[in-house]
Amino acid sequence: MKKQDIYIEKKYRGSITTPATKEANALLFRVRQAYANHEEMSIKLVFLDHKLQKLKKYQKGSSQIELELLDFYIALGECLKFDINDAHKLKNSVILTNDTAHSSFNITKRLKLINKKKLSNAKRSYLFWDIENFSSISSIFSEIIDKYEIKDEHIIMAANPDSLYLKRAEWEANLYDYGKTLNSFEFIKCDHGKNVADDVLLEKFQEAKLKNSNVFILTFDRELKERFTEVTHQSNNLFIMSK
Length: 243
Description:
Layout: E1 2-8, E2 11-18, H1 22-36, H2 49-54, H3 64-80, H4 85-98, E3 111-113, E4 124-130, H5 138-145, E5 155-159, H6 161-176, E6 186-189, H7 196-208, E7 213-218, H8 222-231, E8 237-241
Parallel strand pairs: 4-5, 4-7, 5-6, 7-8
Antiparallel strand pairs: 1-2, 3-8
Helix pairs in contact: 1-3, 3-4, 7-8
């Protein structure tokens, strides 16, 4: 960050703290040029149309770089006294979409390494997800899927038909902000029957014969946690949900 005086048309307009990035310097140039030419000031000086469309969906890293650039544009608007209402609206929208505050359910406080005392080296990461227990998904994406770079094909979901019928629209709406649908992953619609979704997840885990992997089990079912623990290879890091 550096503080600098702003002169436009040889007139001092104020001083501002500028982030030490090429994006911020480029934005400052565009704003000064538009201001001097008496052009319309808008967030299109910050982002092109295709980027504005992307910001309507979840961005990996919670759009921190974009939010910092927006903050700089807002500071410029306050310094140069031009309308920045559109920038405030976009900022609020990005924060809401990415849920940077996360939900009240913070998954990182409940994740627990269950099968060993210390983490071992892992080549890949997998997620076995009983989705009907976790429809609030912001922490799951930011703290597990993004953090461990879990590929879509390594995310195994299962749901019983009754839950699918009742909650599918809700699940799809939640996933939409992340540019995903249920079919983005290995999603399994189960048959009717007690604990059938749990059985499917365990069966898929056993079939995969995973080794040297981080394995995340998202379920509150105590018995299923125990069954996963019993069959996992000792080279895996098995994470489950604690109380």
